[in-house]
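ok so heres the complex, two chains, lmk if somethin looks off
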Amino acid sequence: MQAAGSMSSMDHFWLIIFCACVAFIPRFFPLLFFTKRKIPDWFNEWMRFVPVALFTALVVKSVFIDSKYQVITTGNLGMIISAILVGFVAYRTRSMTLSVLIGLGSVMLFVLLFHI
Amino acid sequence: MDTGTLLLEFFTGMVLEAFLVKKDEPNWLMVLRTVMPLGLSYIPIGLACGVLLHAAGFNHLLTALISVLVFSGGAQFLIASMLTINAPMTTIILMMFFLELRYALLGSSLSRYLKGQSLPFIFTFAFSMNDENYAVNYLKFATDKHWKPSQALLVEHYSLMFWTVSNIVGSLIGSALTINLQVVDFALTALFIYMAIMQTKSRLIVLVALLSGVLTIGCLVIMKSTLGLVVSTLLASLTGYFIERYLIAHKPESHLLYKVHDPTGQSAMEESDK
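and the predicted structre for the whole thing:
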């Protein structure tokens, strides 16, 4: 069990339990709070802008930001081209399956074959 | 006819089965068809995640446990990489906390569709909610008047099943598999691009998306944590909200409020609560 790191399986178990708690709290309490109360209109109006802002943030993070939180300047051209292609496919076809498949195919072509 | 052709026909039939819209199909199959694109993109990512967790010293049981209890690709990748660099437990948990804070936003924005549900339902729903199944459910709730909370919960459980099984398989094959993370991770990126595009119903929303993109880079670089995602999402969505309020009150003819053209012409994308 000492394949990597100095933690035992028991440590890993407790790590999972703590992480599960930390993951559960922000998922549960806001949802509980807002489903049990009358939601003000302004809050609903505001929340309509949240998904698009969040999805864009997640996309930009994975295409432009590395694991050390620095802007990626080289080596992500293939991802940028693929991202634009996926956006175009999604806009024209409105198909989730096609968007994901074409995105994966395109990024494989650019990253694994052309190394850009 | 040889078995190869038969097998191929069987497989094509299965795939078509999974994607074609049919009338009178049972609920579980209809929901499975909705979740299929997500489930399929979870397979390579889950495999990769299982491989990494195995390399970080997790046994198969622990990998299964973390997939069910934490159920977040980003979080599990982070835990695996932190363990391989021997980061202390408290650091990992603290990073997890900041990483998972954005779920508060997901829950808040779905809450209006889950009003009146029981406490056990909310508990179960929150337990298995993550970025991807939230995306699928938000889209369904916003575009399909008949989408029910129980179906949304089923979406979560299907995606959880795809995720956990892929993780376990990844853990079992372990290092026998080399996976390019950059490529695999792009499946989710493509999913989020699709979701963002499906949300852009007005020019103002395009503006919010652009703003969010720029803010994300700034916030992540400055804050050096995924909390940057939360801050940029809050700022961009609030800006969108205030611009819309201002325009509706003062300039109702503004070009920003124009609808974005839908090339497929299926503009049945009306908000179900309007």
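quick notes: Residues 67 and 113 of chain A are 23 Å apart (CA to CA). thats all i got rn
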